[in-house]
User: Fold this.
Amino acid sequence: FPVTINSSRFYTAPSVQELWDQWIPPRSLYTLHLGYRGPFETHLAQGHPDAVSLFHQVQPVKDGALRANLIHPKALSQWFHCQSEGNTIRIKRPEQDDFILSFPRQQTLPKRCLSDYVSSSRSDVMGVLYATAGNVHPTLKTWVSQGLFQEAKILHALTVQTAEALTEKIHFQLRQEAGLSTQIPDAEQINQAKYPGKRFSFGYSACPDLTQQQQLFHLLDPRDIGITLTPISMMSPEASVSAMVFCHPEATYFSA
Assistant:
């Protein structure tokens, strides 16, 4: 793949509004996080009272978050040379020892393992990225103490989705560099990950051992963008995402 192996790259989102408009599918925010039942966009266009009501609850929180500069999206990414060996991926680091990540393999057919998405016969590449929307916990705590429960719920959802939106944006840029994507995905493609190349995060079904998050931290230290790990390997701030990016054209999500 025609990517450049170099030092880590730091990103700040040029516009929080752009992330919201282009990289957060309405279904993710309104249905998955805020509990709307039904096709939100369709109902909003039709003037459905519940959809209109929820939209008008979200908009003031968005406007207030922008005015108060509550959300601070930042990201970090890097490409690494790598090669697979069985269920492990050996990651090459300039002037340092190789780094090993091990993954579980499905016990039933087709017996997939994340290492299958890296070549065992030649040098391959794998991307690592971190993204965060910053720490809004103090604001959420204040709002809850003031009884602003719905507003706090919306701000929490917005922050989590902002981190996901920045992750999607950086993932798209990495796919571009690898020659896998040329057009910005639409909402459906983002919802269904309908594009070549996939990103995987520890704690999810293909790599469920969250403690391996500790290892990923040693590979690409995200403390410079404000992300730390708790004793149980959860990221702080909560609205943070880590991901391993694979360029294999047949990469798909699966449960190990």
